[in-house]
Amino acid sequence: MLRSPLLTTFVALPPFAYFTLLTFVFFKRRQSDPALRKARRAYRDFSRTLKRLTGTTTDAQQQDAVLLAAFRQYLADRLSLPAASLTFADVRKHLDERSLDSEVISDLDSVFTRYEASRYAPGGLAEKDLPSAISSLLEAADKLETELA
C-alpha cells in the first residue's frame, strides 16, 4: 500500500499545494506596494551610493552636486516623493505630518540647505573633505531612520 502511486499522490499533494500557495501569496504581497519596498531599501541604497563615491576624485562643486542628488534621491525614496524637483519644503511638510522630532528636521534642513546652496554658489560652500561630507550625510540619514522606525 505504501508503494502505491495513488497513496503517494494523496500524501504529497497537500504539502505541495500549501507551499505553492504560500509562494504565490509571498510574491503577490511583495509586488503589491513597490513604494513601500523602495522606502525600505532607501537607506541601504543611499549608503551604497556614498561608499562608491569615497574613492572618486572630483572637484568640490561636482562632488557637492552628486552628494545633493544622492541625498535628494534618498529622501524621495524614503518618503515616497518625486526626486527630480524635491525641495526641503516638500520634505518638511511630509516630516511634520509624521510628527518627527524638530531637532531631526532641523538637522536634515541644514544638511540639505548646505548642499543645495553649494550647488548654486560654486566654490563658496563646497566641502573639501569628501569623507566628512559623507559622514555628515549618513549621520543625518541615521537620525531620520531612527525617527521613522
Structure, described:
The structure is a single chain. With 149 residues, this protein is mostly helical. The protein contains six helices and no strands.
List the helices and strands and how they pair.
Elements: H1 5-32, H2 34-53, H3 60-79, H4 88-97, H5 102-120, H6 130-148
The assigned structural class equals mainly alpha
* Share in helix: over 70%
Shape assignment = elongated
- The helix/strand series, from N terminus to C terminus, equals HHHHHH
Averaged pLDDT: 82
Biggest sheet details: none
Strand content: under 5%
DSSP helical segment count: 6
N-C termini distance: 56 Å
Task: Count the E strands.
Answer: 0
Rg calculated over all Cα atoms: 23 Å
Keyword list:
mainly alpha, 149 residues
Can you give me a brief rundown of this structure?
It contains six helices and no strands.
